[in-house]
């Protein structure tokens, strides 16, 4: 019910706000899909990834390359990009999941840095630091509002399917492997395989966010594959509340609003982001969504 | 037929042997008690049997199948279950969820990314909880349970899987006299088609649950036999009973 209310409110945005804010809302939603896919690993799997930009970036680059170099339409470019991203996630998962915790974090970071370096240096293919331009949007959705509705639809379906995954038996097993991996093994659960499947699934949704990203900007640059992008996603999840469904959405909104809206008024928005993050960590270490929920309960019980 | 057959099992940690050439056989349906002073290697032995640790040498057989190289989840699927000396539960989740995860582990459904876990498994979990007398707590997060109740949940999780071989690692640790009696009842009520191997320090309670007793000391089996034989053996008195 609450989710339908949120969806209705979000659908009203183009009717109330101007084009600038509609575009900002599109960016927030795209980033929310990205953050939600990180949340599958960090929040529900207890696997801190610092390389998730790899899936956003590779999917965006693949679709741009298929469209620009091979001249194929979106109907081909999008599935090829997602397939390539999923295959890569499968391979990367084999490598990164040799470890958990800090080891996992370093391996995901290293793997994504390889891709970032490749995108930057393989100039004949990616045009290096210039980025690839000339992408088009699917269905000719060039105006802000129709594109926003397209993004809203894809985001809603993505979040819903990720929520279904978390609530499913496999999702319950995933949370179990986060809290008590040894016990899960003793109960007959294949801990590694549960993590690997989730890794690939999260890679897929990272890829979906990458498609939306490249459609929005009609442009892709190596910075999308960078550590900074992975870290911003991770930051959004932690700030919003990892292991909650609404957390990544709220976190994505906080990061994107600071990055795009506040930065128009304050030059050093990065510093402000830092302050906001410190504030959240001190007063709501579990993230904004669980934090506000806790404060609200306290407020209600006092009243 | 032996439910559990351990042959010349070895495990060392950094050159220090924890399990040093241990062989033992537990018959199907038997209740076996394993005792020994701290550091005797009892829990290490359990971890080797379940596959949490891999053996340096020797073999482990479950119902005449060699499982020495099998991963722990595969051993679970062959009918092996265990409890932990240190409470190892899903503290944030409700009791029914804990039991449901145990039930899920042995079904094909554990791979299903469709449907809702709670709808599919909580009813069966309630049935299990009724059997162990915890149904009134099924909605409570495990973190809010009393220590004695958590001990009971440890056993309930293992029993939910209807194991062929059940390893109980100090199921009475830290309990009051009344709680010990009630856990003892629970263990005594386990049907004989489940073989039970139990580590326990509380000799008064544990002795009359056991058919046979194995005494471990410095990673070796030093005495094995019936209750009377082991208690009478001077070596037992020397290393364990201390008088």
Describe it.
Chain A is mostly helical. Chain A has one domain. Helix content of chain A is 77%, strand content 1%. Chain A has 14 helices and two strands, in the order H-H-H-H-H-H-E-H-H-H-H-E-H-H-H-H. A two-stranded antiparallel sheet of chain A has the order 1-2. Chain A starts with a helix and ends with a helix. Chain B is of the alpha/beta class and 243 residues long. Chain B has nine helices and ten strands. In chain B, the strands form two sheets. A six-stranded mixed β-sheet of chain B has the order 6-7-8-3-9-10, with helices on both faces. A four-stranded antiparallel β-sheet of chain B has the order 2-1-4-5, covered by helices on one side. In chain B, a hairpin with a 2-residue loop joins strand 1 and strand 2. In chain B, helix 3 crosses helix 4, helix 3 runs parallel beside helix 5 and helix 5 runs parallel beside helix 6. The radius of gyration of chain B is 18 Å and the shape is globular. The interface between A and B is medium-sized, with 25 and 38 residues.
This entry's quaternary arrangement is: heterodimer
Helices of chain B, by number, come to: 9
Order of helices and strands of chain A: HHHHHHEHHHHEHHHH
Count of distinct strands of chain B: 10
* Total number of domains of chain B: 1
DSSP helix fraction of chain A:
over 70%
Give the overall shape of chain B: globular
> What share of residues of chain B is helical?
25-40%
Low-pLDDT ranges of chain A: none
């Amino acid at each position: 019910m609450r989710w339908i209310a949120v969806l209705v409110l979000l659908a009203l945005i183009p009717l109330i706000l101007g084009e600038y804010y509609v575009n900002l809302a599109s960016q927030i939603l795209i980033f929310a899909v990205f953050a939600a896919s990180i949340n599958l690993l960090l929040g529900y799997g207890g696997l801190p990834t610092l390389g998730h930009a790899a899936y956003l970036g590779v999917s965006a680059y693949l679709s741009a390359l298929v469209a620009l170099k091979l001249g194929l339409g979106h109907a081909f470019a999008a599935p090829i990009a997602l397939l390539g991203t999923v295959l890569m996630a499968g391979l990367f998962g084999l490598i990164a999941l040799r470890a958990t915790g800090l080891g996992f974090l370093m391996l995901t970071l290293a793997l994504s840095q390889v891709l970032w370096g490749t995108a930057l240096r393989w100039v004949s293919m990616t045009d290096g630091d210039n980025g690839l331009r000339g992408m088009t949007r699917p269905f000719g959705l060039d105006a802000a509002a129709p594109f926003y509705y397209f993004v809203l639809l894809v985001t809603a379906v993505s979040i819903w399917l990720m929520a279904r995954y978390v609530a499913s038996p496999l999702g319950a097993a995933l949370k179990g492997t986060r809290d008590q991996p040894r016990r899960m093994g003793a109960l007959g659960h294949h801990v590694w395989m549960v993590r690997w499947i989730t890794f690939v699934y999260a890679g897929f949704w990272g890829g979906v966010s990458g498609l939306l990203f490249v459609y929005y900007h009609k442009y892709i640059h190596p910075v999308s594959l960078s550590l900074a992008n992975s870290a911003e996603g991770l930051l959004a999840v932690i700030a919003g509340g990892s292991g909650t469904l609404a957390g990544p959405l709220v976190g994505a909104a906080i990061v994107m609003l600071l990055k795009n809206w506040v930065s128009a008024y304050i030059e050093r928005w990065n510093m402000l982001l830092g302050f906001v993050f410190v504030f959240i960590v001190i007063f709501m270490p579990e993230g904004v969504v669980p934090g506000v929920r806790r404060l609200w309960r306290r407020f209600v019980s006092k009243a | 037929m032996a439910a559990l057959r351990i042959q010349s099992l070895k495990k060392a940690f950094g050159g220090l042997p924890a399990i040093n050439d241990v062989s033992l056989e537990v018959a199907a349906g038997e209740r076996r008690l394993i005792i020994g002073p701290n550091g005797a290697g009892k829990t290490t032995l359990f971890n080797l049997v379940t596959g949490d640790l891999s053996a340096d040498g020797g073999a482990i057989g479950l119902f005449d199948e060699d499982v020495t190289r099998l991963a722990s989840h595969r051993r679970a699927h062959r009918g092996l279950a265990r409890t932990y000396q240190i409470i190892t539960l899903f503290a944030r989740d409700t009791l029914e969820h804990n039991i449901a995860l145990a039930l899920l582990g042995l079904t094909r459904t554990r791979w299903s990314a469709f449907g809702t876990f709670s709808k599919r498994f909580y009813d069966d979990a309630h049935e299990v909880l009724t059997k162990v007398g915890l149904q009134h707590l099924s909605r409570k997060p495990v973190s809010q349970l009393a220590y004695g109740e958590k001990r009971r949940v440890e056993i309930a999780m293992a029993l939910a899987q209807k194991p062929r071989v059940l390893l109980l690692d100090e199921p009475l640790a830290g309990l009051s006299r009344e709680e010990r009696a009630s856990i003892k009842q629970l263990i005594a009520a386990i049907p004989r088609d489940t073989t039970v191997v139990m580590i326990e320090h509380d000799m008064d309670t544990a002795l009359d649950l056991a058919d046979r007793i194995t005494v471990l000391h410095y990673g070796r089996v030093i005495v094995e036999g019936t209750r009377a034989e082991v208690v009478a053996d001077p070596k037992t008195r020397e290393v364990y009973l201390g008088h």
